[in-house]
Write a structure and sequence with these properties.
- The complex is a heterodimer of chains A (475) and B (181).
- Chain A is globular.
- About 6% of the residues of chain A have low confidence.
- In chain A, strand 12 and strand 13 form a beta hairpin.
- In chain A, strands 3-2-1-15-16 form a five-stranded antiparallel sheet, covered by helices on one side. A four-stranded mixed sheet of chain A has the order 8-7-6-11. Chain A has a three-stranded antiparallel sheet with strand order 12-13-14.
- Chain A is an alpha+beta fold and 475 residues long.
- Chain A is 44% helix and 18% strand.
- Chain B has a five-stranded parallel sheet, sandwiched between helices. In chain B, strands 4-7 form a two-stranded antiparallel sheet.
- With 181 residues, chain B is of the alpha/beta class.
- The chains are: A alpha+beta (475), B alpha/beta (181).
- The interface between A and B is large, with 82 and 69 residues.
- Strand 9 of chain A pairs parallel with strand 6 of chain B, so a sheet runs across the interface.
- Bound molecules: iron/sulfur cluster.
- Iron/sulfur cluster sits at the interface of chains B and A.
């Protein structure tokens, strides 16, 4: 048996890697994505004071810190009995969250993925990066940079700081949005709507044009899970849990996420530090699911902003209204959400509630809080217990990328089976195929592996005695 | 004349410091005119291609691989900059230094309320790296030339330090840019 190790961040730096076992005919026997980073957060947060949570937890992830900040804050709202936020507090938080989704989706699409789409999976790795994009498509690169910047500016206004802000506090927010701040953001709004439209068009056209090759690429049927609003609409900030199977049948719907433990569990496997969540009623074998933009487009009945809803209709038409199980369709779905975020930002900026002064509520003190949110990469779970001295005594986190652990493994297996199995040698282009499939999920690797999605790869072919047979590296 | 090279890496950090580098926004287009990026998670360069003028390090050392990467950076870079609290003091990852590592592993893989682990095994495969008992700031491992405080340091802080160094000038940061949050 031969072993191929694909190390996303090299052997010495590895945070996540892929191993593939081949038999004598080079057929793939096993393919695994290992997540090789461990934090210990659930334990070391114990003893800290509960109001520190929204500030501490975002240090788990600098790419989507606002998601952790808000999921932690939502859990702490319950500790202080303040979950019925004032309109100002809820809208400021929502604005922060849509700013975050905008910046994160722009970053993922333009900085990390566009090189694959623009230059091809097999392109020269020397140009297949954001600097290559800037050289060949300067206008597009500028749009990406500026869309992300706008998202960051919104976060700065609502959270006080672009990365690791302090805007949300238990029961509310620290500040409102002043007229001057609002007007400064409104000034650049229309330009960003235009850019968001053209980014979506790029992703859509690319997917539709290459549908034949993209549809089977790293794809498989799966369940899908997300939060949805009570009327079934997509809602990235708040909602109830909904899960559907690959054919679109509801597994459960409108489940209060306070009861998530009745529905979701996480399997531990010895070969990865990242756990494998599954729907309890279906068991670990069949209960795994996908989260994130693709899952959200599949679970939502509609989107409550006009342009994104029109785009959603085009999206579901491609699969005749059935759930879309195409891994590479994540990109298109993500860009629909990017436009949706900009539309939401527009709606919120015109809402006078942002200037309200009623910022915090309090109610009956409790000792347990559960906060969920739709982070850019999918459903994010935060669960805490607090003692009478205000200290955390239990923390449980299921981060978005963890929910996609099994699907990312399936994508790796599918690409390995389709593109590597039976081949006499592993080429650089084949390596990037594996990388492209993982990248579709936009893994929030700092929560797990720290790499920025754009992962350098090494593949080593080692024979059963451990002797190095062949080695290829990109870059 | 060849452009100077800049390399970056993330050890045990949250990637927020790299995000702050990207927050230089439009100036990033100017930066790529001034320098060539070498080994960095934002491109496909996996091994150093040559000597680098500046290495930016985010994060501390939490496992043996972090230590190896850090030593490799020291070897290949003229100037090493510790970017952010994790690199300077360990920050949030180092909060686990207050508890035995085993307790952290048990909490995550055995005791958590959503854990399903019938065999009671904690991840231990040879494919995943060994964790250090403690998280170390990087200046306890190699010599560091500059420290940029902040969690993360602001984009302006990073920009000013980098452009001063590349221009051969002394790094002088105004008081407002020195933050320890
Ligand atoms: S210093 Fe702060 S922003 Fe930088 S890696 Fe550490 S936690 Fe993240």
């Amino acid at each position: 048996m031969k072993r191929i190790a694909i190390e996303p961040v090299t052997r010495v730096e590895g945070h996540g890697k892929v191993t593939i076992l081949l038999d004598a005919q080079n057929r793939v026997k096993q393919a695994r994505l290992h997540i090789v980073e461990f934090r210990g957060f659930e334990r070391f947060i114990q003893g800290r004071l509960f109001w520190e949570v929204p500030v501490i937890v975002q240090r788990l992830c600098g790419i989507c810190p606002v998601s952790h900040h808000l999921a932690g804050a939502k859990a702490m709202d319950q500790i202080v009995g303040g979950e019925n936020l004032t309109p100002t507090a809820e809208k400021v938080r929502r604005l922060m969250h849509y700013g975050q989704t905008l910046q994160s989706h722009a970053l993922h699409f333009f900085h990390l993925c566009s090189p694959d789409l623009l230059f091809g999976f097999d392109a020269d790795p020397a140009i297949r990066n954001v600097i290559g994009v800037a050289a060949k498509y300067p206008e597009l690169a500028v749009q990406g940079v500026m869309l992300r910047k706008y998202g960051q500016e919104i976060i700065k206004v609502t959270a006080g700081k672009k990365i690791h802000g302090t805007g949300a506090i238990p029961g509310g927010v620290n500040k409102n949005v002043s007229i001057a701040e609002r007007d400064a953001l409104l000034k650049d709004l229309d330009q960003n709507v235009t850019w968001a439209r053209s980014a979506l068009k790029l992703a859509k056209d690319y997917t539709v044009e290459h549908l034949e090759t993209l549809a089977p690429f790293g794809s498989f049927d799966s369940n899908h899970l997300s939060l949805v609003r009570a009327d079934g609409a997509m809602d990235l900030y708040h909602g109830n849990l909904k899960a559907i199977d690959a054919a679109g049948k509801a597994i459960f719907d409108q489940v209060d996420y306070q009861n998530y433990l009745d529905y979701i569990a996480e399997e531990v496997r010895p070969w990865s530090y990242m756990k494998f969540p599954f729907i309890k009623s279906l068991g670990p074998e069949n209960g795994w699911y996908r989260v994130g933009p693709l899952a959200r487009l599949n679970t939502a009945k509609f989107i409550d902003t006009p342009e994104a809803e029109a785009a959603r209709k085009e999206f579901v038409a491609v699969t005749d209204g059935k759930p879309n199980n195409i891994t590479m369709a994540y990109h298109w779905a993500r860009l629909i959400e990017l436009l949706h975020s900009v539309e939401k930002i527009k709606e919120l900026l015109h809402d006078p509630d942002l200037q309200g002064t009623d910022l915090v509520v309090k109610g009956e003190r409790r000792n347990e809080g559960i906060g969920l949110i739709e982070a850019p990469r999918g459903t994010l779970f935060h669960h805490y217990k607090v003692n009478e001295n205000d200290q955390i005594t239990m923390a449980n986190l299921i981060v978005s990328t963890t929910n996609n652990n099994e699907p990312m493994n399936r994508a790796v297996q599918r690409v390995a089976a389709d593109h590597i199995s039976g081949k006499p040698e592993v080429t650089e282009g084949l390596l990037n195929h594996v990388e492209v499939a993982i990248r579709a999920y936009d893994p929030c690797l700092s929560c797990a592996t720290h790499a920025l999605g754009k992962m350098p790869l090494v593949v080593e072919l080692v024979d059963c005695e451990g002797k190095l047979v062949d080695r290829r590296a990109k870059g | 004349m060849a452009k100077p090279k800049v390399a970056t890496t993330s050890l045990a950090g949250c990637f927020g410091c790299h995000m702050s580098i990207l927050d230089i926004d439009e100036r990033i287009l100017k930066l790529v005119e001034l320098v060539d990026f070498d080994k960095s998670p934002i491109n496909d360069i996996k091994k150093f291609t040559g000597r680098c003028a500046v290495g930016l390090i985010e994060g501390g050392c939490a496992n043996e691989e972090n230590v190896e990467v850090l030593r490799e950076f020291r070897k290949h870079c003229d100037v090493l900059i510790a970017v952010g609290e994790c690199a300077i003091m360990g920050d949030i990852p180092a909060m686990r230094n207050m508890v035995p590592l085993k307790e952290c592993l048990d909490e995550a893989y055995l005791n958590g309320p959503s854990v399903y682990n019938p065999s009671g095994q904690v991840p231990n495969d040879p494919e995943i790296p060994l964790l250090l008992n403690k998280v170390y700031p990087i200046n306890e491992v190699v010599k560091i030339d500059y420290f940029l405080p902040g969690c993360p340091p602001s984009a302006d802080t990073i920009w000013q330090a980098l452009t001063a160094l590349l221009g051969g000038k002394p790094v002088e940061l105004p008081y407002e840019l020195i933050k320890y949050d």
